[in-house]
Amino acid sequence: MSNGQVIKARALSAAEFAPFGDVLDFSGAPHKIINQGLCGRWHDLAQMDFGPRGRAGISLFDAQPRQMPLTLEMLERHPDGSQAFLPMTEHPFLVIVAPDADGRPGTPRAFVTAPGQGVNYHRGTWHGVLTPLHAPGRFAVIDRIGPGANLQEFLLQTEWRIEI
User: Fold this and answer.
1) Which residues pair with 164 in a beta bridge?
2) What residues make up the domain containing 46?
3) Order of strands across the sheet that contains 137-145
4) How far apart are CA 139 and CA 118, in angstroms?
5) Kind of pairing between the strands at 126-127 and 55-63
6) pLDDT classification of 159: cutoffs 50, 70, 90
7) Cβ contact 111:17 at 8 Å
8) Which of 6, 57, 71, 104 gives 20 to 30 Å between its CA and that of 30?
9) What pTM value is reported for the model?
């Protein structure tokens, strides 16, 4: 690949991911103990935002695993709603995000989730497509259901190579 740049994916952490969204995991002690003391509840972990014309929907995705290193050619965002990805396996997956730079993606960043971690992208956050690293690539997805075009795709002028 000519003129490409390399991004080294790092372990996903709540602090580093905060500008882009929320990390969904079982870190720390549960916020509440419920069900007669038999269940810990990690409460209200994501800032779900569906705008004034949408509602929350739950969908199931089954994505093909990707081989590393990965060539990143496109990013997308959803201007009308946040989007949460909750893995339905214990396998890690790749999370790619970029800050907004005047309506275009800025320099991408890449993270690898720990087993069981999920993410919630804030509304309008540039991100890569769903990128499982192992089969099956099954996820529960909570995102906006409603009228209007809620997808913007941006083909990158520079190809980025993502390495783990």
Assistant:
1) none
2) 5-163
3) 21-24, 118-121, 83-87, 137-145, 55-63
4) 9
5) unpaired
6) confident
7) yes
8) 57
9) 0.91
